[in-house]
Amino acid sequence: MLNEILARRVLIVLGKGGVGKSTLSAAIAKVATLSGASALVMECDARAPLAATFGVASSFVPTQVAHNLALMTLDGRAALEEYLRLVVPGRMLLKAVFASRLYQFFVQAAPGLRELMMLGKVFYDAEQPDPKPHARNLIVVDAPASGQAMGLLKMPTAARSTFGDSVVGKEASNISKMLRDQRNCAIVQVTTADTLSISETIETHALLSSIHLAPAAVLFNRMPPSEFGAEDISTLTNRRGRHLRRKDLEHLAELAKSELKRAADARKAIAKIRTETGGPVLEIAEHSGMSGIELIDRIAAELARHREDETVPRTAHRR
Questions:
Q1: Which pLDDT score is estimated for 248?
Q2: Does 39 have pLDDT greater than 90?
Q3: Which of 78, 79, 245, 309 is the most buried (most CB within 10 A)?
Q4: How is domain 2-76+111-226+279-318 classified at the CATH fold level?
Q5: What average pLDDT does the segment 141-164 reach?
Q6: Hey, where are the domains in the chain?
Q7: What confidence tier does 76 reach under pLDDT thresholds 50, 70, 90?
Q8: Could you tell me which of 213, 215, 211 has the C-alpha nearest to residue 201?
């Protein structure tokens, strides 16, 4: 599953705020670089949390943040202006357009067009030739929170219907084709075990499927560890010793029971997602106490092991 997803040119990562979507977007991109590919993360959050994590300024121009890994902030207005530079002949005319009050009003009054141009930037970069002949360049879009992302993904179809065969309509048609090209583009959802995240993931999956943009997979983030069972808790509770009082043992047992319940609830949530969506779910372990680049690297290493696990059986089968 993971190898198939990473074989795409564009990955669009969706999820409710707070589920670790940005961290996983960066980790996915990092995994691609481990096999020699180049990766570009486009973050849609104007606050640019990933830029802050990597210690670089937010920029519409890709900034190198690690080996073969670049980062940029996907800004609708900047994307629109870049597009106009491609279609408007002459610097003087372009300068006059940008300076005009009508243009300023137009940009403020047409947020849908800015969203379209954001996806247009993704499409334009995806159409560029690979910098390396044997390693495909990957674009990972760290999309807005699910509600906003749905509006973003619906925009090309709406624009195509509104603008018809005009320049904007044709651009919208090209973007819509890119999103629905399952060989080159995949949508990946991120969730955690909390009830609201699970409900939103299932609801968003259904909405995307209804417009022929069914996600390729769900990444279940922060999966609690399952390193012990009920028998271990019973053994702990009944333990005798001079170094631990009965009260202390009971307290530790309650903590262990709480962790055991968290793991059980997470497994139930995963089963529900699989049943409701019919798609694959990939578990990403919880890494308590980690954040920033350290967490991105740890999850990237975990995903790399998933890729190896997927590859080994096929290799063995061919032998």
A1: 60
A2: yes
A3: 79
A4: Rossmann fold (3.40.50)
A5: 88
A6: 2-76+111-226+279-318
A7: confident
A8: 215
